[in-house]
């Protein structure tokens, strides 16, 4: 009660009610096991209590994938399918998507305070190996929806990084300049060094 009496400390109470990204790491890796050193670094850097959600194959659910993802699987383009499955898991559970080739930055912990975050890989490219959101986030739903229908991304099976960049530019006003930006809709985009390093 004493916190409510002070206008500055009252903000703490609002903060305590805020949804945060869960301590869940989402990793889709079809046809290959995760390296042991990757797992050790993961739990040391984020939290020993972090939960790892893995998708090691998609045999049971591939029948309800969009046509472009089914075609990617048939052609052996596993990365395209892994990116789609990662988005599905992120939308359902919330957490941080992390590709097996990414090493975690210690700064990743505080990024859980965002509702959704992305980051630059270089001046113009959005990193598809490390991003996060709370469960059910509308931006992740919109990205999933983009896998349906006829578009250049689906016809050419373009990687998620290109889809993310154009999606954030068109829908949220991203400026592809490599700088940290808070976009409309409370999306945060960070410098390359904040998220992870390859």
Query: Based on CA inertia axes, which overall geometry fits?
Result: globular
- The end-to-end distance, rounded to whole angstroms, is 47 Å
Count helical runs. 9
Q: What is the N-to-C succession of helices and strands?
A: HHEHEHHEEEEHHHEEHE
Structural class: alpha/beta
* Helix residue percentage: 25-40%
The portion of residues forming beta strands comes to 15-25%
Biggest sheet: strands side by side, in what order? 2-1-3-6-5-8-7
How would you describe the overall organization of this protein?
- The chain is α/β, with parallel strands linked by helices and 198 residues long.
- Helices cover 38% and strands 17% of the residues.
- It has a seven-stranded mixed β-sheet with strand order 2-1-3-6-5-8-7.
- Helix 4 (67-74) crosses helix 5 (78-93).
- 32% of the residues are buried.
Summed up:
The chain is α/β, with parallel strands linked by helices and 198 residues long. The chain is 38% helix and 17% strand.
Question: What are the SSEs and their pairings?
Answer:
Elements: H1 2-5, H2 10-17, E1 24-28, H3 36-45, E2 51-55, H4 67-74, H5 78-93, E3 95-98, E4 103-104, E5 116-119, E6 130-133, H6 138-145, H7 152-155, H8 160-172, E7 181-183, E8 187-190, H9 192-195, E9 196-197
Parallel strand pairs: 1-2, 1-3, 5-8
Antiparallel strand pairs: 3-6, 4-9, 5-6, 7-8
């Amino acid at each position: 009660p004493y916190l409510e009496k002070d206008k500055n400390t009252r903000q703490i109470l609002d903060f305590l009610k805020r949804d945060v990204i869960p301590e869940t790491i989402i990793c889709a890796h079809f046809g290959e096991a995760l390296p042991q050193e990757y797992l050790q670094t993961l739990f040391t850097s984020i939290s020993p209590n972090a939960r790892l959600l893995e998708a090691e194959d998609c045999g049971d659910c591939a029948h309800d994938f969009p046509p472009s993802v089914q075609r990617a699987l048939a052609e052996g383009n596993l990365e395209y399918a892994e990116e789609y499955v990662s988005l599905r898991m992120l939308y359902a559970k919330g957490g941080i998507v992390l590709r097996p080739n990414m090493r975690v930055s210690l700064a990743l912990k505080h990024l859980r305070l965002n509702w959704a975050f992305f980051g630059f890989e270089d001046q113009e490219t959005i990193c598809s190996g490390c991003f996060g959101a709370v469960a059910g986030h509308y931006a992740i739903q919109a990205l999933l929806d983009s896998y349906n229908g006829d578009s250049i991304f689906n016809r050419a099976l373009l990687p998620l990084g290109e889809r993310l960049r154009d999606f954030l530019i068109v829908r949220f006003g991203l400026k592809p300049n490599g700088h940290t930006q808070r976009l409309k809709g409370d999306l945060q985009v960070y410098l390359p060094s904040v998220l992870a390093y390859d």
